Amino acid sequence: MNFFDIGFLEILVILVVILLVVGPEKMPEYARKLGQLVRNLRKITSNLTSEFTKAVDLEDEVADVKKTAEEIKQTVSDEAEEIKQTLDQEAEEVAEIIKTEATEAKKMLDEGAKELSQAIDKGAKDISDTIGDKDKKAVKTTKAEKTSAAGAKKPKPPSPPDGTTINPKKKP
User: Where are the domains of the chain?
Assistant: First the structure.
């Protein structure tokens, strides 16, 4: 039995010296105090050991929590990057579709404007031709009226279809 690297024989010598110094009457009292001191020392070391173990366990738990937090952070970062890439790709596709549709709409508007311009030009030409024909007829009619007025009498107004006569002096 070794207690603080002291052998059994050495402990026996220490006890005999204490017995001689203290005396046999006070020996049980000092033995009791020594026992309490050893018990308190063991309690303190036991508490210290358990606190140290708890601290080490807490450090391990903190390290585990930090590791888990880093893993979660990395996972969230990876997912965010993947979502960003997906959204960027979708945005590019939508932009391409919009560009294509805008090009087609512009093309259709240009064709419609061209057709409308052609229709307006044709309509203007038709109106111009019609006006020109009416001007020619009006000129012919004016010439005809001048020639007939010079040598002819006034024409009689047409009679109504029911056979009644119209008296211009009589008012209805």
Answer: 8-131
Residue 2's alpha-carbon distances to 7, 38, 45, 49, in angstroms, are 5, 15, 19, 22
Structure tokens at 53: 């173990």
pLDDT < 70 regions, the chain: 1-4, 144-145, 147-172
* Distance set, CA 156 to CA 111, 165, 166, 167 (Å): 57, 12, 11, 12
Q: Is the pTM of this model over 0.85?
A: no
**Cα(141)–Cα(147) distance, integer angstroms:** 10
- Find the Cα–Cα–Cα–Cα dihedral 148, 154, 160, 163, rounded to 10°: -120
What contacts 160, CB < 8 A, 6 or more positions away?
166
Q: What's 38's DSSP letter?
A: H
Distance CA 156, CA 168 (A): 12
**7 Cβ contact partners less than 8 Å away, ≥ 6 residues apart:** 1
Q: Do residues 1 and 10 lie in contact, with contact meaning Cβ atoms separated by under 8 Å?
A: no
Phi and psi torsions of 154, nearest 5°: -70, 135
Cα separation, 140 vs 48, in Å, equals: 133
Torsion of CA 123, 125, 127, 133, to 10 degrees: -150
pLDDT at 127: 87
